[in-house]
Amino acid sequence: MNDRLNSAKKGVQNKGERDTFLLKEIAKGDQEAFKELYISYQPRLIKFCSRILKNDVALAADITDEALIAVWKSAGTFSGNSQPSTWIHSIARFRLIAYLRKSKEVLLNDDSAALSLVDESPLPEDEIASSETSAEIVEGLGKLSDKHREVIELVYFKELSVKEVAGVLNISENTVKTRMFYARNKLKGILSNNGF
Fold it and tell me: Given 3.30.470.30, 3.40.50.970, 1.10.10.10, 1.10.1740.10, which CATH number is that of 12-116?
């Protein structure tokens, strides 16, 4: 089955096309395709969830596994209207929101509040070097509003496109751009006031 999967993927041009192909194969019950998708997405989904969960990696791994099992079960419903990464990231996001609501760790007025929680812990060392400038940036991010910080994190740390961020947050691309504009200006002002 692995040979069939590899030969079928040869015509695939980019990651989005590859993931779309894998989702189609997963919808047919292909376990090798699911294994490949799982290996590709599991680390970054754990990283995303653990940041919201105050670096509780074990819990983040559990939620990530639940999200990827949901991908396995619902792969046939992927319509292709967004990038596969956006669709998969959204499933993980909603699983995380469901956990936060169920555990009553936070009281939510809307879904955006769940993923806009302030993470006071430092970012992982592999994302931001532990230099004086990086510490200032982290501190500056902590001073942004929740909605502005979330957009900055998704674009710069998760490396999602404006279109993908719009899909994940269920807002328009223009809203993403507006939030990015204000977030960058606010962060620039904070850093300027601190001598950077």
Answer: 1.10.1740.10
